[in-house]
Each structure stands twice: as C-alpha cells, then as structure tokens.
C-alpha cells in the first residue's frame, strides 16, 4: 500500500453535505459521480493531498442507506492506494483478511477497487484503490 487515497463519509443528502463541507473546507467539490455498481452518488473534495469522498445511497435499501440507518451519518471507510491491486488482494487474503469481492471492480474517481470485510480489520471498512490507466 502506498498511502491513504481518501476517506469516505456516508451522508443522507449529498447536496446538503456538499454545502456543509464546502463551508468547512472553504472549497467546492472537484467531482461528482454516480457509481451504479455500488449504488451510490459521490462527491469528492481535495484539501492539499487529502481527499474526502461523500457517499449518498441511490436507493432506500442500498449499502449506504443501511449503514446510515444502523450507525448514522459519518465515517464509512478509509481507502488506500495500491500499485497492483491484484497482488495486494492476494497478499492480504494470504494474511487472513476477508475480501468482500474476489476481483477488483470499477469504483469512483477512475479507480479499480476492492473492500476488506470489517470483521477482519477491527471493525473498519478498508478499500483498496488502483488508478485505471
């Protein structure tokens, strides 16, 4: 793993959260994107080298909606950048981590992604990311 790629925050209403974070960071989001495979709408902020991803569920029964229902709005995941996501997935699986998908899938912000199950990471959802070239 190279570095923290972004921090994901689950929100009920993307537009309202964008206003709040725009005021907090004194900056506007640089990208808004629908990720159908994950059932989310996303909005990205970048403060220096730190990226924050806001996530809104596209449906009432989506993963983010269920997360918010159970835990409320707030911290959802931390993502780490990788050079070779396939090799990193294999390494982590060999170390005993539980992967939520067997192969990387297309995620937001032009990335291939894979998630690690929170049961194997002390309750934290971890995302692996690799830039699609």
Automatic annotation (TrEMBL):
InterPro entries: Glyas_Bleomycin-R_OHBP_Dase (IPR029068), MeMalonyl-CoA_epimerase (IPR017515), MMCE/EMCE_epimerase (IPR051785), VOC_core (IPR037523). The keyword Ubl conjugation does not apply. It comes from the Bacteria. Residues 3-131 form the VOC domain. Pfam families: Glyoxalase_4 (PF13669). CDD domains: MMCE. Its EC number is 5.1.99.1. Belongs to the methylmalonyl-CoA epimerase family. This is Methylmalonyl-CoA epimerase. It comes from Dyadobacter pollutisoli. The gene is mce.
């Amino acid at each position: 793993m190279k570095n923290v790629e972004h921090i994901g925050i689950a929100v009920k209403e993307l537009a309202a959260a964008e206003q709040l974070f725009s005021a907090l960071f004194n900056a506007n989001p640089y990208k808004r994107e629908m990720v159908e495979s994950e059932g989310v709408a996303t909005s990205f902020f970048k403060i220096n080298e730190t990226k924050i991803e806001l996530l809104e569920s596209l449906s009432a029964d989506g993963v983010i909606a269920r997360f918010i229902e159970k835990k409320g709005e707030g911290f959802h995941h931390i993502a780490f950048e990788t050079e070779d996501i396939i090799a990193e997935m294999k390494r982590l699986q060999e170390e005993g981590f539980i992967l939520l998908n067997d192969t990387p899938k297309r995620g937001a912000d032009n990335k291939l992604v894979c998630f690690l199950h929170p049961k194997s990471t002390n309750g934290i959802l971890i995302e692996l990311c690799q830039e699609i070239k």
